[in-house]
Write a structure and sequence with these properties.
Distance between the termini: 46 Å
Strand content: 25-35%
Structural class: alpha+beta
Oligomer: single chain
């Protein structure tokens, strides 16, 4: 069943990108809620790096919080993907490395 939902997420993301271009909706709006790291699947793919980048941008992790007495249930906690990439970015003059502060502050710039 893992291959099915991964395929569905990829296909629906592409459709949404094409259909909603006028409303600036992109394939990033398709999210997969799972704690599965999918290690056994990405090794079987021909484009492993592409899948790992897709997973980094579209996988939402979940957990269960403390018991909520008012609602008589446990809260569901979702961890969404970061809005930035933690990868080295090559610019014309240099290499920009995220400084680890969440993308909003200092970065390390290495001249080429």
């Amino acid at each position: 069943d893992d291959w099915y939902w991964m395929h569905a997420a990829l296909v629906n993301g592409e459709k949404r990108k094409d259909e909603d271009a006028a409303t600036s909706m992109s394939s990033s709006s398709v999210l997969a809620i799972t704690n599965d790291e999918m290690r056994d699947h990405h090794f079987q793919m021909s484009a492993q790096g592409s899948f790992l980048r897709w997973k980094e941008r579209h996988q939402v992790y979940f957990d269960f919080g403390a018991w909520n007495r008012d609602l008589r249930r446990r809260d569901v906690l979702l961890t969404y993907p970061k809005s930035y990439s933690r990868r080295i970015q090559r610019v014309d003059c240099c290499i920009d490395v995220d400084g680890g502060d969440g993308g909003g502050g200092e970065a390390i710039v290495i001249p080429l």
